[in-house]
Design goal:
The chain has 152 residues and is an alpha+beta fold. The chain has helices at residues 61-73, 127-130, 137-151; strands at residues 2-3, 10-11, 21-28, 32-38, 48-49, 52-54, 80-82, 87-90, 97-105, 119-126. It is globular and about 40 Å long. Its cofactor is Mg(2+).
Length: 152
Protein backbone atom coordinates (compact mmCIF):
# COMPACT_ATOMS: atom_id res chain seq x y z
CA UNK A 1 0.00 0.00 0.00
CA UNK A 2 1.37 3.42 -0.89
CA UNK A 3 0.25 6.90 0.01
CA UNK A 4 1.74 9.88 -1.76
CA UNK A 5 2.55 12.96 0.41
CA UNK A 6 -0.05 15.70 0.02
CA UNK A 7 -2.34 13.39 -1.91
CA UNK A 8 -5.77 12.03 -1.10
CA UNK A 9 -5.04 8.95 -3.20
CA UNK A 10 -4.09 5.59 -1.80
CA UNK A 11 -2.65 2.83 -3.98
CA UNK A 12 -3.30 -0.67 -2.71
CA UNK A 13 -1.19 -3.57 -3.96
CA UNK A 14 -2.52 -7.09 -3.72
CA UNK A 15 0.05 -9.79 -3.26
CA UNK A 16 -0.50 -13.36 -2.14
CA UNK A 17 1.23 -14.18 1.14
CA UNK A 18 2.01 -11.95 4.10
CA UNK A 19 5.67 -13.00 4.15
CA UNK A 20 6.12 -13.14 0.38
CA UNK A 21 5.79 -16.04 -2.01
CA UNK A 22 7.97 -18.39 -4.02
CA UNK A 23 7.71 -20.55 -7.10
CA UNK A 24 9.79 -22.91 -9.15
CA UNK A 25 10.40 -22.95 -12.89
CA UNK A 26 11.31 -26.49 -13.90
CA UNK A 27 13.11 -26.74 -17.25
CA UNK A 28 14.27 -29.62 -19.41
CA UNK A 29 15.91 -30.27 -22.77
CA UNK A 30 13.99 -29.00 -25.73
CA UNK A 31 14.19 -26.43 -24.22
CA UNK A 32 10.87 -26.59 -22.39
CA UNK A 33 9.51 -25.28 -19.09
CA UNK A 34 6.74 -26.63 -16.87
CA UNK A 35 3.89 -24.13 -16.63
CA UNK A 36 0.43 -24.24 -15.12
CA UNK A 37 -2.72 -22.53 -16.33
CA UNK A 38 -4.21 -21.09 -13.17
CA UNK A 39 -7.80 -22.14 -12.58
CA UNK A 40 -10.44 -19.42 -12.88
CA UNK A 41 -11.24 -19.39 -9.15
CA UNK A 42 -7.68 -18.60 -7.98
CA UNK A 43 -6.06 -15.15 -7.95
CA UNK A 44 -5.11 -14.14 -11.53
CA UNK A 45 -7.01 -17.15 -12.91
CA UNK A 46 -6.72 -17.86 -16.61
CA UNK A 47 -3.03 -16.95 -16.71
CA UNK A 48 0.03 -19.16 -17.07
CA UNK A 49 2.62 -19.32 -14.31
CA UNK A 50 4.91 -21.58 -12.33
CA UNK A 51 3.84 -23.76 -9.40
CA UNK A 52 4.18 -21.47 -6.40
CA UNK A 53 2.53 -19.78 -3.47
CA UNK A 54 2.78 -18.01 -0.16
CA UNK A 55 5.53 -18.63 2.36
CA UNK A 56 4.31 -20.20 5.57
CA UNK A 57 5.52 -18.84 8.95
CA UNK A 58 9.22 -19.64 9.41
CA UNK A 59 9.53 -21.18 5.94
CA UNK A 60 12.49 -20.39 3.70
CA UNK A 61 11.66 -19.39 0.10
CA UNK A 62 13.30 -22.49 -1.44
CA UNK A 63 11.32 -24.74 0.92
CA UNK A 64 8.09 -22.95 0.00
CA UNK A 65 8.84 -23.34 -3.71
CA UNK A 66 9.52 -27.07 -3.32
CA UNK A 67 6.40 -27.54 -1.16
CA UNK A 68 4.28 -25.79 -3.78
CA UNK A 69 5.84 -27.94 -6.54
CA UNK A 70 4.82 -31.06 -4.61
CA UNK A 71 1.33 -29.74 -3.80
CA UNK A 72 0.50 -28.34 -7.24
CA UNK A 73 2.39 -30.68 -9.59
CA UNK A 74 2.97 -33.81 -7.49
CA UNK A 75 6.74 -33.54 -8.02
CA UNK A 76 8.93 -34.37 -5.00
CA UNK A 77 12.02 -32.37 -4.02
CA UNK A 78 14.23 -35.43 -4.61
CA UNK A 79 13.14 -35.47 -8.27
CA UNK A 80 14.63 -32.06 -9.13
CA UNK A 81 17.93 -30.22 -8.79
CA UNK A 82 17.36 -26.62 -7.69
CA UNK A 83 19.60 -23.70 -8.60
CA UNK A 84 20.21 -22.05 -5.20
CA UNK A 85 20.33 -18.53 -6.73
CA UNK A 86 16.70 -17.38 -7.22
CA UNK A 87 15.43 -14.52 -9.32
CA UNK A 88 13.81 -12.17 -6.78
CA UNK A 89 11.28 -9.46 -7.55
CA UNK A 90 10.46 -6.99 -4.76
CA UNK A 91 7.53 -4.61 -5.00
CA UNK A 92 8.98 -1.09 -4.86
CA UNK A 93 5.90 0.23 -3.05
CA UNK A 94 5.44 -2.29 -0.26
CA UNK A 95 8.57 -4.47 -0.03
CA UNK A 96 6.73 -7.73 -0.74
CA UNK A 97 8.97 -10.27 -2.55
CA UNK A 98 8.53 -13.22 -4.90
CA UNK A 99 11.39 -15.71 -5.30
CA UNK A 100 11.54 -17.80 -8.49
CA UNK A 101 13.90 -20.77 -8.39
CA UNK A 102 15.10 -22.63 -11.46
CA UNK A 103 15.18 -26.42 -11.33
CA UNK A 104 15.76 -29.33 -13.67
CA UNK A 105 14.92 -33.01 -13.40
CA UNK A 106 17.43 -34.93 -11.27
CA UNK A 107 19.61 -37.24 -13.36
CA UNK A 108 17.70 -38.79 -16.23
CA UNK A 109 14.36 -38.80 -14.41
CA UNK A 110 11.11 -38.33 -16.25
CA UNK A 111 8.90 -36.16 -14.09
CA UNK A 112 5.37 -37.45 -13.61
CA UNK A 113 2.96 -34.53 -13.24
CA UNK A 114 -0.11 -34.81 -11.00
CA UNK A 115 -1.68 -31.36 -10.91
CA UNK A 116 -4.09 -30.29 -8.19
CA UNK A 117 -7.32 -28.29 -8.52
CA UNK A 118 -5.52 -24.92 -8.55
CA UNK A 119 -4.46 -25.66 -12.13
CA UNK A 120 -6.80 -25.95 -15.11
CA UNK A 121 -3.86 -27.34 -17.09
CA UNK A 122 -0.18 -28.06 -16.58
CA UNK A 123 2.24 -28.90 -19.34
CA UNK A 124 5.71 -28.64 -20.79
CA UNK A 125 5.84 -25.52 -22.98
CA UNK A 126 8.61 -24.80 -25.50
CA UNK A 127 10.57 -21.78 -24.28
CA UNK A 128 9.99 -20.09 -27.64
CA UNK A 129 6.19 -20.16 -27.06
CA UNK A 130 6.04 -18.84 -23.48
CA UNK A 131 5.96 -15.16 -24.46
CA UNK A 132 2.80 -15.68 -26.54
CA UNK A 133 0.80 -17.02 -23.57
CA UNK A 134 -1.30 -14.86 -21.23
CA UNK A 135 1.20 -14.83 -18.36
CA UNK A 136 0.49 -14.13 -14.71
CA UNK A 137 1.68 -10.51 -14.22
CA UNK A 138 4.29 -11.50 -11.64
CA UNK A 139 5.68 -14.31 -13.79
CA UNK A 140 5.54 -12.07 -16.85
CA UNK A 141 7.76 -9.51 -15.08
CA UNK A 142 10.29 -12.21 -14.23
CA UNK A 143 10.23 -14.15 -17.53
CA UNK A 144 12.76 -12.00 -19.48
CA UNK A 145 15.46 -12.54 -16.83
CA UNK A 146 14.54 -16.19 -16.30
CA UNK A 147 14.73 -17.06 -20.00
CA UNK A 148 18.17 -15.43 -20.17
CA UNK A 149 19.32 -17.64 -17.31
CA UNK A 150 17.94 -20.71 -19.09
CA UNK A 151 20.08 -19.86 -22.12
CA UNK A 152 23.29 -19.67 -20.05
Amino acid sequence: MARFPGSTHLTVHRHWGLRGAAGILVHRAGPEVLLQLRNTWVMQGGTWSVPGGALEPGEEPVDAALRELREEAGIAARDVVVDPDPQVWTCPDCGWSYWTFLARPAGDRTLRIRMNAEAADMRWVPVSEVGALPLHPGFGRSWPELVTRLED
